[in-house]
Write a structure and sequence with these properties.
By secondary structure, this protein is of the alpha/beta class. The chain contains 17 helices and five strands.
Length: about 450
């Protein structure tokens, strides 16, 4: 008789979930749990929180959606609001758990946390669910991951993506739970946040069905760099980030679309973007803690530091750049920012403001409803010149970008109300005050 504790993490779905399928097949008794860490809501080292209001609202909706789908199969989702190590230890002990199983993480922090989950008599197992391929599918050992995306793409693009798995027809019922382990009412308020997305697999399925029922895939490459417009991108990333949608589900839907309507350079570019995500996940897995280090994978650190006032102006959308201000205001108010907007805001923080890129990455972690640690920190390293970029970083001409992507100024007007540009600094290098016209103040 085997009692399995299945811990949901970045796989908040029943469809195409190999880890959940294996947990059910190996078990006589199954317990499904999700750990909400109180530390996610506290200020971290980079003046931001790991989980902001937008993503928490979306995550809470996703958990509720998952609980409803589990209940339809005779299961329920236990939600534990505590440090995972402490709460899972108590649960394993109280319910005589034999096996702890979860989706295989890509990033250092999650892998380190998994290593700490050592409980007497409990075996552990990780199953890959969050990537298109598993290590066995890749044509090279992960340790030999190509240094740049282009080389990775050439080797991986010809591979056949494994089929998606159907949702389980039934799940073993959980044991009688009379202990007060799970209490949804203990969770922080999830009513705030400006995102109007619907978290969970039902919202993901609706977006998937809508997008591939239109001709939008045939214009994706031409519109993906637009600063605004709900259908300029595929819009899958929020559900993809927390696993309410799997990359294989997207790949399958794309294949079915191209079978019906024919493939184009534009529709193929959707798959290229999936491969970019794939690369960042294997890159994160290979690099470990270097994904979060100031110098990244390089031998020399970037020539930036931390200017508190500049960073604050960047987060508040009050820099000298109206376009960057618009991007940061949209991000702060909605939890969303276009791919082009993210690149512009990141380049401005690093190259114009000279601020340590990790503060920007952490701010995006707090604000983005579709935050994915591998993609977020990998992209920030890319911009800062300390990651997998053969060009050694990306420096965008903000004025040119504005003329190219917001020629009529509609985006800036929508998110800034034509506020006047403010000077970059209020003090000089010796901390003497600077007036608004850029001159030193004199009494």
């Amino acid at each position: 008789m085997t009692t399995t504790l299945y811990r949901f993490t970045n796989d908040l779905r029943l469809t195409d979930n190999a880890a959940l399928a294996q947990a059910a097949s190996l078990s006589d008794t199954l317990i499904c749990v999700y750990c909400v860490n109180p530390g996610w809501f506290r200020m971290g080292r980079y003046q931001s929180r790991p989980l902001g209001e937008h993503r928490w609202r979306f995550l809470y909706q996703s958990l509720r959606d998952l609980d409803r789908h589990l209940e339809a199969l005779g299961q329920r989702l236990l939600v534990l609001f505590d440090q995972p190590e402490a709460s899972l230890r108590r649960l394993c002990s109280a319910l005589n758990v034999d096996l702890l199983l979860q989706s295989h993480p890509s990033c250092f922090d999650e892998l380190t946390e998994w290593d700490r989950l050592e409980f007497p008599g409990v075996h552990k197992r990780l199953i890959w669910t969050h990537t298109l391929f598993t290590p066995d599918h890749l044509p090279f050992p992960v340790e030999q991951l190509p240094s740049y995306f282009t080389a990775f793409r050439k080797e991986v693009e010809p591979l056949t993506v494994p089929d998606t798995l159907s949702p389980p027809g039934r799940l073993l019922p959980p044991p009688p739970l009379t202990l007060p382990f799970s209490d949804w009412n203990q969770l922080p308020d999830a009513s705030r946040g400006g995102s109007d997305l619907s978290g969970g697999s039902e919202g993901a399925a609706a977006r998937l069905d809508y997008y591939f029922s239109t001709r939008l895939p045939h214009s994706y490459k031409a519109t993906r760099n637009a600063l605004q417009g709900g259908d300029n991108s595929t819009g899958f990333s929020p559900w993809l980030a927390n696993g309410a949608l799997s990359p294989r589900q997207i790949s399958t839907a794309l294949y079915q679309y191209e079978t019906r309507h024919g493939a184009s350079e534009s529709s193929r570019w959707i798959y290229v973007e999936l491969l970019w995500r794939e690369y960042f996940h294997w890159y994160a897995y290979k690099q470990g803690s270097q994904l979060f280090q100031f110098r990244g994978i390089k031998t020399q650190p970037p020539l930036t530091t931390f200017y508190p006032a500049r960073f604050r102006k960047w987060t508040q959308g009050s820099t000298p750049s109206p376009l960057v201000n618009a991007c940061m205001n949209e991000l702060r108010e909605t939890g969303w920012l276009s791919n082009r907007g993210r690149q512009l805001a990141a380049s401005y923080l690093v190259n114009e403001l000279g601020v340590d890129w990790r503060y920007g990455a952490a701010w995006f972690e707090q604000q983005l409803v579709d935050y994915d640690p591998a993609a977020n920190w990998g992209n920030w390293q890319y911009i800062a010149g300390v990651g997998a970029d053969p060009r050694g970083g990306r420096h965008f001409d903000i004025e040119w970008q504005g003329r190219q992507y917001d020629p009529d100024g509609q985006y800036v007007q929508r998110w800034t109300d034509n506020q006047p540009a403010l000077p970059l600094d209020s003090v000089d290098c010796a901390d003497w005050p600077i007036s608004l016209d850029g001159n030193q103040r004199r009494e």
